[in-house]
Specification:
Largest sheet of chain B: none
Order of helices and strands of chain A: HHHHHHHHHH
Radius of gyration of chain A: 19 Å
Order of helices and strands of chain B: HHHHHHHHHHH
Number of helices of chain A: 10
Shape of chain A: elongated
CATH topology of chain A: Tetracycline Repressor, domain 2
Number of strands of chain A: 0
Number of domains of chain A: 1
Oligomer: heterodimer
Structural class of chain B: mainly alpha
Largest interface: A-B, 43 and 45 residues
Distance between the termini of chain A: 47 Å
Largest sheet of chain A: none
Helix content of chain B: over 70%
Helix content of chain A: over 70%
Structural class of chain A: mainly alpha
Mean pLDDT of chain A: 89
CATH class of chain A: Mainly Alpha
Shape of chain B: elongated
CATH architecture of chain A: Orthogonal Bundle
Number of helices of chain B: 11
């Protein structure tokens, strides 16, 4: 049955994300993944060439799922600052609830080769594009092209630090700082600090 | 001529071979061949490949941090100090693309100890940024993590360039990198002015 085959493939992809987040990409074996998925080696190789092939598919699916969740939560949020806050909050909640997913998404992806790094970079750009899309530009105001790279770089740097230190569950405490990091290239320090204070009070 | 010690040759080999093959594909045999040392000598110095890589990482991070700090000290005040430090960082990375890869790209493949080394190396760059807090009009209202954010923004700008094999072009990114550093403290307009004005 098609749905059954599909669900087995999905189970393998979910297992891949979890095991890599727990053990690291390099030490993860196909045996670990099929054990976690409760499936067989034959089933694994029916769907994937090898661990790397499976990881890339798992990463893409994970990005789609996280992104769909963010879009579902944020669409309709206005003004732009609320949309950014809601989007970051959603991302941080997903990471805090699923630390293994977070580690795979942000930290371990760097161990999986150039094509995996490309997927990570594409995901970052997608998130960036989504955030930029809701921004009402002040007429005549020009900001450097790279400004969203800075915002996302600052946010992902902070998240990376926390994950490497094993503090995924505590990420929501960092929400005011993350919001500041995201907004400051656009709004400047004063206005971004105001939003940060508001977020801290709301928490 | 001062001969490099066997340890130095092993560390250089780790930088070069990992930049060429990636961490996972690098073997101890690759390192001993590149360094021109015996397997026995290697294992007298390092328990495994990871230990050699981490030692190479420490040396690279030290060299970068010292160069950046020295450039930083040539200027009396922020933001000129930040500019000098960042310029030295970008030039150092451009001069040694293999070290740039090791420091900012390949560490990710080398496991949790290397990831912690990377964090620590970035942490050493915070003085470059922290003085911005005293300089900025809104300085006291900024979150304590502001320097970490600025570093993240800088790394976001340069890591993909290095991964794409464009480390040599990094000095050309100084305006963007400086803007990323200054804008959390000064705001986008003042940061853009400072970047343009201080040439």
């Amino acid at each position: 049955m098609a749905t059954d085959i599909e669900s087995r493939r999905d189970a393998i992809l979910t297992a891949m994300v979890r095991v890599v987040g727990r053990k690291g990409y390099d030490p993860t074996s196909v045996a670990d993944v099929i054990e976690e998925a409760g499936t067989s080696r034959t089933t694994f190789y029916k769907h994937f060439d090898d661990k790397h092939d499976c990881f890339l598919a798992a990463y893409e699916r994970m990005v789609d799922q996280v992104f769909d969740t963010i879009v579902a939560e944020c669409d309709g949020e206005r003004p732009w600052v609320s949309r950014v806050r809601k989007g970051l909050e959603t991302l941080i909640q997903i990471f805090a609830l699923e630390p293994e997913l977070a580690r795979t998404a942000v930290v371990e992806v760097a161990a999986a080769g150039a094509d995996a790094r490309k997927l990570h970079w594409d995901a970052v750009n997608r998130f960036k594009g989504y955030l930029e899309a809701g921004r009402e530009l002040e007429p005549g105001k020009e900001l450097p092209e790279q400004i969203s790279v800075m915002a996302v770089g600052a946010v992902s740097g902070l998240i990376f630090d926390e994950l490497v230190a094993g503090r995924a569950e505590q990420l929501p405490e960092l929400m005011p700082d993350l919001l500041f990091a995201m907004l400051v290239p656009y709004l400047g320090p004063g206005a971004a600090a105001d939003e940060m204070r508001r977020a801290a009070q709301a928490a | 001529m001062v001969a490099r010690s066997q340890r130095e040759r092993a560390l250089d080999a780790a930088v070069d071979v990992v930049a060429e093959k990636g961490y996972a594909a690098t073997t101890v045999a690759d390192l001993t061949r590149e360094a021109g040392i015996s397997r026995t000598t290697f294992y007298e110095m390092f328990p495994d490949k990871e230990a050699c890589f981490l030692a190479a990482y420490d040396v690279a991070a030290d060299v970068l941090a010292r160069r950046v700090a020295a450039a930083f000290e040539t200027e009396p005040a922020w933001p000129a100090r930040a500019r000098a430090g960042l310029e030295a960082l970008l030039e150092s990375l451009a001069e040694e693309p293999a070290i740039a890869r090791l420091a900012l790209v390949d560490f990710g493949a080398a496991g949790p100890a290397a990831q912690r080394r990377y964090r620590a190396a970035l942490q050493r760059m915070t003085p470059l940024f922290d003085e911005g807090r005293d300089f900025a009009p809104e300085g006291r209202r900024l979150p304590p993590n502001t320097s970490r954010m600025a570093i993240g923004a800088v790394v976001g700008l340069i890591a993909e360039e290095i991964a794409a094999g464009r480390a040599e072009q990094l000095p050309g990114l100084l305006p963007e990198v400086l803007f990323a550093t200054l804008s959390p403290y000064l705001g986008p307009e003042a940061a853009a002015l400072a970047v343009a004005g201080e040439r």
